[in-house]
Specification:
Protein name (chain B): Oxidoreductase
Number of strands of chain B: 12
Shape of chain A: globular
Organism (chain B): Streptomyces hiroshimensis
Largest sheet of chain A: 5 strands, mixed
Number of strands of chain A: 5
Keywords (chain B): Oxidoreductase
CATH topology of the largest domain in chain A: DNA polymerase, domain 1
Oligomer: heterodimer
Helix content of chain B: 25-40%
Number of helices of chain B: 12
Distance between the termini of chain B: 55 Å
CATH architecture of the largest domain in chain A: Orthogonal Bundle
InterPro entries (chain B): CO_DH_flav_C (IPR005107), CO_DH_flav_C_dom_sf (IPR036683), Diverse_Substr_Oxidored (IPR051312), FAD-bd_PCMH (IPR016166), FAD-bd_PCMH-like_sf (IPR036318), FAD-bd_PCMH_sub1 (IPR016167), FAD-bd_PCMH_sub2 (IPR016169), Mopterin_DH_FAD-bd (IPR002346)
CATH superfamily of the largest domain in chain A: [2Fe-2S]-binding domain
CATH class of the largest domain in chain A: Mainly Alpha
Strand content of chain B: 15-25%
Structural class of chain B: alpha+beta
CATH class of one domain in chain B: Alpha Beta
CATH topology of one domain in chain B: Enolase-like, domain 1
Largest sheet of chain B: 5 strands, antiparallel
Pfam families (chain B): CO_deh_flav_C, FAD_binding_5
CATH superfamily of one domain in chain B: CO dehydrogenase flavoprotein, C-terminal domain
Strand order of the largest sheet of chain B: 4-5-8-6-7
Number of helices of chain A: 5
Strand order of the largest sheet of chain A: 2-1-5-3-4
Distance between the termini of chain A: 72 Å
Radius of gyration of chain A: 20 Å
Largest interface: A-B, 49 and 44 residues
């Protein structure tokens, strides 16, 4: 049977930073090119364009992904978050603030990818995921502390040709610490409220 | 890149029908290898059938105490799964040793098994390559082959299989399940990858148009004490130049049972059965470990520039087995 003729382009709706965008794409279009060339979201950078440098890292359904190997048409229906979507109004994301405060960059080209990667990596670690440098991966061993070695391994998909790695590791550690404090505070507040509710009952 | 059609499928029969109707169609999983090869012009599909939303994304215990891993489970979810980490720690370690956090989030188990070699001649369409263009020749035999095969290669192709995950799966006797329009089938991983011989372009025993649906790990109490160790040219985010997946069952200083597989030394994950035979019943000491490595590597046929791999693998086997025997003694 001869294959049915097939269209080489599609009309798709992408959900980016909470906004829906409908566009017609040639199937060859990567998510990276769609973001930069079609939606004018140029924060996501094109480095190697072959999945080796991490400059184009964005979040798909909260998970870090390289946009250069992700076809735009295959990203339909997923929640895409780019560097432009991390801040809340004028309030920078703690990871963005940490990179600024600790000089986690030199030229800045890899920085959006580094920050998106770090944000998702911190969540992966908080969920208890081991890494290639984790001594004992068995769940009984508990989650590994987020040491500098762990950060370097978990961030190895993001290259920095300026070599700003020393401050990048510090910035990621700071961002993780802020997240842990925020979670602890939220937990304390929650506990207090629960106690009060129980007291009232 | 050549233009192509795209369809997303939500059930296995729909996926099979689309591939059956179009021999130039390919299944798209995470795309980390296929999209890259399409950019390079190595793969030129007429149509992509996106299988990522097939209901094959679960890891479930089997009745006999093994695990069944769905084909669209991501590498990240596989490595993070508590039962994988508890029962087959070397498998979690192998997956974590591969690629980067971003790529592991995208890559699927089925796609990982079917990924192609990173031989520089295969990925460069301006060069001959028997795997890409049968009969065109293999420049690697006399060219750049520092990271090529020392075991099981032929004069037609000396490329190595790049997967870390598949090495651990091979050590633990995993079985690949697939579906075709004629019904389901299964292949032990030891038979899944074909020997190179004179047909390096034929890489697996999967029937034409088949869809991998999952991988089943049989129960293996021995795997609870297992390790994967990978040597590469930088500390992270690089393909192996040699790797070992191993499990050891030691009682009273004597090896009761052993599992050993090598990566980055052959066109497929290399189950080291000669080494396993040497280990079983012998004392768990450095002399035995070296003898086991030598038994396997006796068949090695290094090329002019990759002889270092024989030494590297010998040392790696001894190191990993030593670590495991110390762990077993604790």
């Amino acid at each position: 049977m001869a294959p049915a003729p097939t269209s080489t382009y599609s009309s798709i709706t992408l959900s980016v930073n909470g906004d829906k965008h409908t566009l017609t794409v040639d199937h060859r279009t990567t998510l990276l090119d769609a973001l930069r060339e079609r939606l004018d979201l140029t924060g996501t950078k094109k480095g190697c364009d072959q999945g080796q440098c991490g400059a184009c890292t964005v979040l798909l359904d909260g998970r870090r992904t390289v946009a250069c190997l992700q076809l735009a048409v295959a990203a339909e229906g997923r929640a895409i978050t780019t560097i432009e979507g991390l801040a809340e109004g004028e309030q920078l994301h703690p990871a963005q603030q940490a990179f600024l405060d600790l000089d986690g960059y030199q030229c800045g080209y890899c920085t959006p990818g580094q920050i998106c990667s770090a944000v998702a990596m911190i969540e992966e670690h908080a969920a208890g995921w081991p890494s290639a440098v984790t001594d004992d991966v068995r769940p009984e061993a508990g989650p590994p502390p987020l040491t500098a070695d762990e950060i370097r391994e978990r961030m190895s998909g993001n290259l920095c040709r300026c070599g700003a790695y020393v401050s990048i590791v510090q910035a990621v550690a700071r961002a993780a610490a802020v997240r842990a404090e925020t979670t602890a505070t939220a937990h304390t507040t929650h506990t207090t409220m629960t106690t009060q509710t129980q007291g009232a009952a | 890149m050549k233009e192509f059609g795209y369809q997303r499928v939500f059930d296995v029969s729909g996926a099979l029908a689309l591939l059956d109707a179009d021999p130039d169609a390919r299944f798209l999983g995470g795309g980390t290898n296929l999209v890259d090869l399409m950019k390079a012009g190595v793969e030129r599909p007429a149509r992509l059938v996106d299988v990522r939303e097939l209901p094959l994304d679960r890891i479930e215990p089997t009745a006999d105490g093994g695990l069944r891993i769905g084909a669209t489970v991501t590498n990240s979810d596989l490595a993070a799964h508590p039962e994988v980490r508890r029962r087959y720690p070397a498998l979690a370690q192998a997956v974590l040793a591969g690629a980067s956090g971003q790529l592991r989030n995208m890559a699927t188990v089925g796609g990982n098994l079917l990924q192609r070699t990173r031989c520089g001649y295969f990925t460069d369409v301006t060069r001959p390559c028997n795997k890409r263009t049968p009969g065109s020749g293999c420049p690697a035999v006399e060219g750049e082959h520092r990271n090529h095969a020392i075991l099981g290669a032929s004069g037609h192709c000396v490329a190595v299989h790049p997967s870390d995950m598949a090495v651990a799966l091979t050590a633990f006797d995993a079985v690949v399940s697939y579906e075709t329009t004629d019904g389901p089938g299964a292949l032990p991983l030891s038979e899944f990858y074909l020997p190179v011989g004179g047909t390096p372009h034929l890489e697996t025993a999967l029937p034409q148009g088949a869809l991998i649906t999952g991988v089943t790990l049989p129960p293996a109490p021995i795997a609870a004490v297992s390790r994967y160790r990978k040597v590469r040219e930088r500390a992270s985010y690089a393909f192996a130049i040699g790797s070992v997946a191993a499990a050891l069952d030691v009682r009273d200083g004597v090896i009761q049972d052993a599992r050993l597989a090598f990566g980055a030394v052959a066109s497929r994950p290399w189950r080291a059965r000669s080494a396993e035979r040497t280990l079983t019943g012998a004392r768990a000491d450095g002399e035995t470990f070296a003898a086991a490595a030598d038994a396997e590597l006796a068949a090695a046929k290094p090329l002019p520039h990759n002889g270092y791999k024989v030494t590297l693998m010998r040392n790696l086997v001894v190191a990993v087995l030593t670590e495991l025997s110390e762990e077993a003694a604790r």
